[in-house]
Amino acid sequence: MTTKGFKKLASLPFPLGAPTWPDSVERPSKLRKVGLDYDNAWSRRYPARLVRAMVLDNLGRPTVRVLAPSTVRGYHHVEQLEGPVIFVANHASHLDTGVILTHLPTHLRHKTIVAAASDFFFDRTWKAATWSLLLGAIPIERTKIDRRSAAQAEELLAEGWNLVIFPEGGRTPDGWMQDFKAGAAFLSCKTGAAVVPIWLGDTGKILKKGSDFNGRPPGGSGTEDAESGGLHRHRVSVSFGSPLRPEPDDNARRFAPRIEAAVELLGREVSTDFWQARRNPNPANTRGPEAAPWRRAWAKPEDGEHMASWPKR
Amino acid sequence: MSPRPGFVLEVDRSTPPTLFWSGEQLSLHRLPVGSRVLYAPEPLEGLADPEAAIAHALEHPTGDSEPLSALLFPGMKLTICFDDVSLPLPQMAAPDVRQLIIEAVLDAAAAKGVDDVVLVAALALHRRMTEPELRHALGDRVYDAFAPHGLLTQHDAEDEDALTYLGQTKHGEDVEINARAASSDLLVYVNINLVSMDGGHKSVATGLASYKSLRHHHNPKTMKASKSFMDQHHSELHSANWRMGRLIKESGIKIFQIETTLNNDTFPGRFAMLQKREWEWNLRDRATFAATSAALARTPSRYARQIFHSIKSPYRLTSVQAGEVEAVHEVTTANVWRQQGVVVEGQSDILTMGLPYICPYNVNSIMNPILVACLGLGYFFNMYRGKPLVREGGVVIMTHPTPWEFHPGHHPSYIDFFEQVLSVTTDPEVMHAQFEEAFATDPWYRHLYRTGHAYHGVHPFYMWYWCSHAMAHLGRVIIVGGDPKAVRRMGFTPATTLEDAFELAKDVVGPDPSITHVHNPPLLMADVQ
Q1: What is the spatial distance between Cα A190 and Cα A276, in angstroms, rounded to a whole number?
Q2: At B78, is the secondary structure helix, strand, or coil?
Q3: Where are the domains of chain A?
Q4: CB of B167 within 8 Å of any CB in chain A?
Q5: Are B189 and B204 in contact (CB under 8 A)?
Q6: Which residue of A has its CA nearest to B283?
Q7: Residues near B143 by Cβ (< 8 Å), separated by ≥ 6?
Q8: Which of chain A's residues have a Cβ under 8 Å away from the Cβ of B9?
Q9: Is residue A95 within 8 Å of residue A201, measured between CB atoms?
Q10: Which fold has domain A35-218+225-310?
Q11: Which of A25, A26, A32 is the best substitution to test chain B (most B C-beta atoms within 10 A)?
Q12: Structure confidence at residue A224 (pLDDT)
């Protein structure tokens, strides 16, 4: 229906049109149930799952294949794996979620939800609905531990859902991996779900933090730093590690470093090789030097394979 | 977010039209500027775990009572009585709270090795419940365990062999109740307290009584002296029942009273607009209302009735308390008020009310003209504490089609009452003196009451007495949209539209009257200051 049509409908007398508000009654401030309060149970019901599966398989996978042709390692770790599983990955780009989901085997892909920052993906009703539908996103509080989001994730894992979580709490600002928060380890200890470490290499080259899909850094006109913004085709690497399970006497504090180390190891394997990664566990390969921000950025290896970018420069 | 309390709206030019029930029809009416509309508090949160709350209540009794498990012993005679089909309204979605409680009581009895258990529906002079109604109230598990063995019974107020006379109160009131209940080692009463009049000593003293006993408080004198019968501190009906209840207690009958309160979440989601404030109706509410009201206007009344009576309310249990009758009832009444109370400043000249399709006496049945009067003037008028919402000499305007239609199986004596009694007098005192006895003792009505599903012969009189206080208080009663002949037969004034009714009312209360509208259901109790 057109805007004109909606306006015409609204101008009809009550009850066909909207009711007038009595002058004597104070209008409540419009309470939007967004953020952690957003109830997206609907997105886990069959109709929404069907839409998600269709979009992911028919639109998401071809798009990711075109935008981010990948080198996949360790696929055998997840090929036969049974859920519930917690997928834990480093985070450099908004496309990371799509890359992970499209690289999962079908039996896991269609039963996977994504922990998404409530302050970013759930701050508007339309955004919350969109990400809930397309990614099966659930809102989490990334700045502090929130019982509600933890309880919901725990409940969904117990129901057999797989969960994608980025324990860095946000995309890396400089390309180097950040410290992990203990959320994934906590959930694994609580539910017994296996944790699959994933290293995503070079996804930041496609759509890095600080730019939008039009190539404009926030607040910028799009001309200052054209190289840094926008969508660029780039080859990426997706490395799955061996599933980790908490030991009987493990707690989140003990288990979290093991997860972090496993992701880091996968990253080193990509930049060196299997043997070197183990023989020379130099954190600088994934974490970068402990130095000023420009030196950290400077130390980042040059792009490997440059491909076409969009929009055209 | 906690539920909002009740609300009194003062109608202004921006106020949208107000919802009025009219039997099985729904309509919107614009009330004059300055009118007040009373809205019930929003539904309270239900108990998260009703079964656990029931178990807790049984083992942690209120007042001077031992826990249920301590009152049960092998070889005892246990009778479990429960409220009949008149509660709650509409029927609640399964599982009914009576089922949950009775199952818990039976679990406790089984654990203690109690063999002699009988269930009794506390009908008083109401019609017997049908099998589907019993199954709904008690659940299949209870029904199938007791009914085939004749252990699920319905109180028969006309079976002299099944009644026990306990004596007279100091006021000369005869107390005669169900013999099985009277001879039991423990009488467990399971109640649903929908309005503040229910429960307490009224459960046993009325629900299990005979006509001989009931006539002492179901009469015009008592009803006129109950201002209102919903306010136990100013209700002669309440006082009479309390006197009888205390006599029952003194006669050695041990009662373990279990009372419950429900929230007022009356209509399921698809009809949510019926309990919302009109200015908060969203697109879905408006579309549902437009479609529903248009469809109902084109649906024959019998089908519309079937549709409405099939609605099961999503009521939630808000409290359960068990133990000594009076202590339990005090807590229960407070919980009823918590859900229904609305503070209102002062009376008005005119009180308007839209009467819905159901009252306690036409569940799965027809709302005949006498029940229309009883719902409006008996129940809704009396839903106050302090003073009536309408001043003395004021006018009540009710909307209801008031068809000249009766259910011959459920309300046989109503038909004759309407034809033979109301055609002679509408004065409760006169009909009490001249006609009541004949109807109450009529063998055909007794037969239908005892063997069919008919209300007792005297029941239409009681319904009319229920209106006594209102009729004595009011200057005129107007029914909008009612069958003019049926309305006039009852001594009321018919009107075609609400606007006509206001004009007619001005003849009584004068120009520029103050108006209050009760947005009911969900039920509300006005605390008139």
Answers
A1: 35
A2: strand
A3: 35-218+225-310
A4: no
A5: yes
A6: A18
A7: B131, B134, B135, B152
A8: 22, 24-25
A9: no
A10: Glycerol-3-phosphate (1)-acyltransferase (3.40.1130)
A11: A25
A12: 36
Residue type, B315: Y
Report the relative pairing of strands B525-528 and B515-519 from DSSP bridges. unpaired
Name the nearest CA neighbour of B413 among B434, B451, B443, B377.
B443
- Pairing state between β A194-201 and B7-10: unpaired
User: Tokens in use for B111?
Assistant: 């654990």
The reply to whether residue B286 touches residue A21, judged by beta carbons under 8 angstroms, is no
pLDDT of residue A148: 80
Which pair of tokens denotes residue A65? 């294949």
Judge contact between B97 and B129, C-beta under 8 A: no
Q: How far is B289 from chain A (nearest CA, A)?
A: 8
Do the bridges between strand B476-480 and strand B390-399 make them parallel or antiparallel, or are there none, so unpaired? parallel
Is B28 within 8 Å of chain A by CB? yes
The amino acid at B344? V
Partner-chain contact B14 A23, CB within 8 Å:
yes
Pull the structure tokens for residue A96: 């990371």
* Closest in A16, A17, A21 to B279, CB measured: A21
Helix, strand, coil tally for chain B in percent (to 5): 40, 20, 40
Question: Is B10 in CB contact (< 8 Å) with chain A?
Answer: yes
In the structure encoding, which two tokens stand for residue A72, read together? 């996949």
Say yes or no: B409 contacts chain A, CB-CB below 8 A: no
Does B14 sit within 8 Å of A22, measured CB to CB?
Answer: yes
pLDDT in tens, A235-244: 899 999 999 9
B9 at the A interface (CB within 8 A)? yes
Query: Are A15 and B279 a contacting pair at CB < 8 A?
Result: no
Give pLDDT, residue B155.
98
Model pLDDT for residues B271-326, shown as the tens digit of each residue: 989 999 999 999 999 999 999 999 999 999 999 999 999 999 999 999 999 999 99
Residue A210: closest CA among A237, A169, A170 = A170
> Is B140 an 8 Å CB contact of chain A?
no
- B281 interfacial to chain A (CB closer than 8 Å): yes
Task: Name residue B424's amino acid.
Answer: V
> What CATH class has B50-262?
alpha beta
Q: Do A14 and B28 touch (CB under 8 A)?
A: yes
B11: nearest CA partner in chain A: A22
Residue B282 to chain A, least CA–CA distance (Å): 7
Which residue in A16, A17, A22 is closest to B12 by CB distance? A22
Q: By the 8 A CB rule, do B127 and B449 touch?
A: yes
Of B279, B286, B290, the CB nearest to A22: B279
H/E stretch holding A166: none
What is the residue-wise DSSP string for B119-176? EEEE-TTSPPPPHHHHHHHHHHHHHHHHGGGT-EEE--TT-GGGEEEEEE-TT--EEE
pTM of the model: 0.71
Residue B219, SS3?
coil
pLDDT tens sequence across B359-378? 999 999 999 999 999 999 99
pLDDT per residue over B78-119, tens digit each? Answer: 999 999 999 999 999 999 999 999 999 999 999 999 999 999
Distance CA B392, CA B476 (A): 10
Residue B1 is classified by DSSP as -
Residue A309: per-residue pLDDT: 47
Interface check B408 vs A, CB under 8 A:
no
CB-based contacts of B209, cutoff 8 Å, min separation 6: B124, B157, B175, B176, B177, B244
Tokens of B142: 């209870």
A185-205 mean pLDDT: 90
